[in-house]
């Protein structure tokens, strides 16, 4: 286990962005938790949405006076191959779950749990990767409350994977999901739904001055911001369906001949499929000079891409939530997204973007073309998207709901 670095972050950084009563609520909750210790555990410090959330949540909690730590598992490639299979299986498509896979999973999670030191009042386990640590935690921290924060789409899991994860649920006091449908078949712990959020003050999401924008735009040459541009920003992963986005782009190009497409993604440390998918996508796009396949861009560069794209696409086949949708909407860029997972919670069809069926790239292409041909509609959708995210998907709201669950799980006075 190791503790990743994270930036300084203060609650006051959000004072000009969110309503004062939301910050006041956080201060009140923090008073109730001032003498408690909280630990977050996940499987990677880079490249994924969970890591991004923790990189903001943990320092804000500490600024509030809540003693909060974050530890990342140390694991082998074999382990991550197994946990990616578990992730895929929980989302409905994975290989048979073998005893050898289970053994690999349990040996690595047990080794990591043996490295945990200190005492905590509450431990938040993120996603399936660290769940195997719970057996040892029950022995070493018998008084600690356990919260499982599941970020995965559980609407149609393969039964053997669902059963494997369910074995750990009796040791969980509270489970948090990103959508109501994901919690329907979970038996054992108390459950809650908390929508994820973006952090509006990070390099990826904050406003940029003209000089910074120019530097980042130059970095993206030969991609041109003087021609129509559609972008998808996702991990290179089969569920993100970059191939479907390529089909949608080709359909839209029939009506918008000078259209460009940027397929951008980071490589998550716990995802062994990433490079393979990236190479397949790059090979598929290699003959088209208007398609740009990019990886591991700095956050500020991603920020510029989301701001200066005419349309953002998120054509996922499954999606736990898809915060890249809110990132684009926050920057006033309309989104065409699949009607799966958490995406329809963020896109109001015909108001800030369009929803399409995940297996219909032709419709996605038509919606993209419709937006590209109507600048006033793009502007209206962009303004609507900014306000929709401000009201629902910024970090202080998510953190408030998380801390309310912590207070409840620890049995602190419910009048807080």
Automatic annotation (TrEMBL):
GO terms for biological process, alphabetical: glucose metabolic process
Pfam entry (one): TreT_GT1
The Trehalose synthase N-terminal domain, residue ranges: 40-183
Keyword Amino-acid biosynthesis in record: no
InterPro entries in alphabetical order: Glyco_trans_1 (IPR001296), Trehalose_Metab_GTase (IPR052078), TreT_GT1 (IPR049438)
MF annotations from Gene Ontology: glycosyltransferase activity
Keywords: Carbohydrate metabolism, Glucose metabolism, Glycosyltransferase, Plasmid, Transferase
SUPFAM superfamilies in the record: UDP-Glycosyltransferase/glycogen phosphorylase
UniProt key word Transferase: yes
Glycosyl transferase family domain residues: 226-387
Gene3D superfamilies: Glycogen Phosphorylase B
Family of this protein: Belongs to the glycosyltransferase group 1 family. Glycosyltransferase 4 subfamily.
Quaternary structure and partners: Homodimer.
Protein name: Glycosyl transferase group 1
Source organism: Halopiger xanaduensis (strain DSM 18323 / JCM 14033 / SH-6)
């Amino acid at each position: 286990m190791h503790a990743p670095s994270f930036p300084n972050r203060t609650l006051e950084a959000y004072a000009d962005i969110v309503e004062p009563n939301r910050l006041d609520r956080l201060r009140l909750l923090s008073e109730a938790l001032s003498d408690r210790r909280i630990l977050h555990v996940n499987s990677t410090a880079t490249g994924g949405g969970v890591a991004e959330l923790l990189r903001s949540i943990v320092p804000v909690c500490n600024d509030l006076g809540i003693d909060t730590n974050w530890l990342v598992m140390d694991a082998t490639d074999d382990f991550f191959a197994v946990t990616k299979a578990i992730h895929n299986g929980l989302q409905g498509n994975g290989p048979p779950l073998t005893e050898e896979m289970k053994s690999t999973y349990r040996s690595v999670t047990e080794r990591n749990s043996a490295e945990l030191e200190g005492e905590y009042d509450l431990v938040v386990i993120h996603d399936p990767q660290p769940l195997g640590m719970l057996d040892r935690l029950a022995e070493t921290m018998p008084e600690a409350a356990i919260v499982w924060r599941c970020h995965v789409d559980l609407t149609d899991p393969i039964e053997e994977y669902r059963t494997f994860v369910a074995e750990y649920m009796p040791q969980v006091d509270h489970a948090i999901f990103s959508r109501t449908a994901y919690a329907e078949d979970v038996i054992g712990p108390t459950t809650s739904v908390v929508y994820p959020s973006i952090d509006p003050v990070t390099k990826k999401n904050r406003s940029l001055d003209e000089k910074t924008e120019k530097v980042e735009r130059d970095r993206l040459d030969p991609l041109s911001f003087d021609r129509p541009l559609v972008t998808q920003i996702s991990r290179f992963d089969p569920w993100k369906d970059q191939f479907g986005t390529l089909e949608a782009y080709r359909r839209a190009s029939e009506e918008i001949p000078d259209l460009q497409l940027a397929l951008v993604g980071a490589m998550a440390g716990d995802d062994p499929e990433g490079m393979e998918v990236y190479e397949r996508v790059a090979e598929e796009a290699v003959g088209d000079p208007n398609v740009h396949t990019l990886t591991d861009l700095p956050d500020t560069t991603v920020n510029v891409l989301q701001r200066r794209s005419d349309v953002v696409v998120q054509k996922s086949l499954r999606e736990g939530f898809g915060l890249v949708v809110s990132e684009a909407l926050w920057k006033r860029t309309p989104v065409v997204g699949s009607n799966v997972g958490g995406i329809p919670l963020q896109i109001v069809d015909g108001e800030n973007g369009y929803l399409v069926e995940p297996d219909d790239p032709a419709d996605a292409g038509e919606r993209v073309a419709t937006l590209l041909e109507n600048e006033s509609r793009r502007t209206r959708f962009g303004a609507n998207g900014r306000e929709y995210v401000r009201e629902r998907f910024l970090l202080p709201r998510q953190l408030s709901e998380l801390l309310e669950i912590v207070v409840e799980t620890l049995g602190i006075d419910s009048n807080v």
